[in-house]
Amino acid sequence: MEFKCDCGNVYASRGNLRDHQRRFCRGAGEQNNDCPYCNISFAVYRGMRQHLRHRHPQQYNAEMEEEVESRPMRRGLWTEEEIEDMAIAEARVMVLSIGTW
């Protein structure tokens, strides 16, 4: 016998279906997280995000790309002068290891 969730997932036992519904789909949870693309509801945000990654990967990836692009750029850990100094120091070590400086 198969136990089918409203989201389309199928389970071999009623317990597995209940566990899935508690963790991912509406049923046991009070919080409502709807998929914006196919109107499936999830009890927890994590379940909805997992659904998006697997069922709507193009839309999910586009959202992630927008989010990354909208983040403010952080300054690098090193200044240009520090990077130059490190490059010179590395070059000296390389030359000294060869024996000609």
From TrEMBL:
Residues 35-56 form the C2H2-type domain. InterPro entries: Znf_C2H2_type. This is C2H2-type domain-containing protein.
